[in-house]
Input
Amino acid sequence: MNLRKKYIASVVLLATSSIMASAATVPQKPNILLVVADDLGYSDLGSFGGEIKTPNLDSLAESGVRLTNFHTAPACSPTRAALITGVDPHIAGLGNMAELLAPNQKGEPGYEGHINSKVVTVAEILKDSGYRTYYTGKWHLGMSKDSNPQTRGFDNSFALLSGGASHFSDMKPAYAPTPEVKAPYTDDGVMIKKLPESFQYSSQYYSDKLISYLKEKQSSEQPFFAMLNFTAPHWPLQAPDAAIAKYKGVYDAGYDVLYKQRLASQKELGILPKGAEGAERPPKGTPWENLTSEQRKTESKAMEVYAAMVDEMDVYTGKVIEYLKDSGQYSNTLIVFISDNGPEGHDIDEVFSSELYPDIRHVIDSTNDFSYEQMGRLGSYTFLGPNWAWASSPAFRMHKGFPTEGGTRSVAIVKMPNVNGEGRIIDSYANVVDIAPTILEFANVSAPKGSYKGKKVEEISGQSFLPVLTGRTTGEDDRIAGGELFGKYFVRKGDWKLVLMPTPWGTGEEQLYDLSSDLAEKHDLSEKYPEVLAEMKIYWKEYVAKNNVILPDWVDGY
Output
């Protein structure tokens, strides 16, 4: 029996009869809270093996279940499109990120660069079914009125429309061609010129705003669907001074040490199989021992700021949970927490090279303070980089932007309404497109079947994992799943996975991996199992045809 099957067998034994019995008592209309982190690593939370202080999310995991085989798209906006619709991003309008559309993709169906009219959001469906709907934080699904959260199903919303911004109130965008541009925020669909004085830090304000909706807008007769969408820990890495100070010196031993510690911790917790190998260092990574003392100092500070961002995200998630408990709504609330992809391991030259984005890079370089003393503060601009990202998801190859496990395997926690999950760990495969149908099944609401309000729409392609959560099935899943971004792609069936990545990240040829014994994707089996490789190539072609995938005619460094 291989590692994965042994692991699944041990998990199945934990699905107790009490859990199964209590699942039948789940109310027809629970409240729903969906919390999304931005670029969080697989081992960052304490309940997933990290040393960062995350007591609120760890408590949620203890009362719920942890999904250790949950997958997203490789980057932000494609994941968010799939999350909110249950449909593949190549169909929903985010076949590629709007900022990085290739010339041959522009104007093509599925590559609108925003959530399109072919899909229905879970918010629209729930609102039609009597739910009150709220949204705060990062949107990244379109800048126009037609693709705003206010017009896509949310009664109230405060949204950052772009992919990133300063975490403080200066409204500095994460990227802009001129310094005069401000980050695009909307309040109930109306673009605002200035953030309120109560906006002290992104995680704080998004949480406070959501609580204000629940206090002021919510009726006791209606259930709610709320999305809390953090921009933490997305670059630029910034956090309040007091939060950063909590981690001073914690990472002075370096990322090589942290990598080993977290890998061992994840095995000890049962997040990873005992025999799982650690992933290889990314191509742009550098051994800690090869850094100068000044480089080590800067690297350590970057991780201190990153940890502070994760810490603050936990604090403010806790504030929302505390409100739900104080108001008597916690027990009857389904809470789902995920990250939108793996940790960000690119550096600034990869994301904003002077050659490809000269104007944006000039604005970044000329309007930010890159000094050590300013790191993490207002007006600073720091990336996590490939080395800490490697330690952040130590068992998986690469990071955000890649179709390997490091880019797509995400932390996920589910707290069911009126059900004690007993801290179970579930290793069954689940995908971000499964969240919408899972939410709808919890709410006892049907999704549209091909049409919505007289208009033809795409049907949800994900499948509910409620039966897995409640222990009615082990969830062994041989479905074919694929994904593509920036010309890098994968397709998988069961434990077999085909991956193609251009050099220097891959070979430029399709590679084959058996995830049951090789989560780190270290051992290419394409020559050993040519018949499996041939079968997987057929699945990839089927995925391309089904989802109208258009490979870019250029491959960006991102």
Notes: The domain at 3-480 is CATH 3.40.720.10 (Alkaline Phosphatase, subunit A). Confidence is low (pLDDT under 50) at residues 1-27.
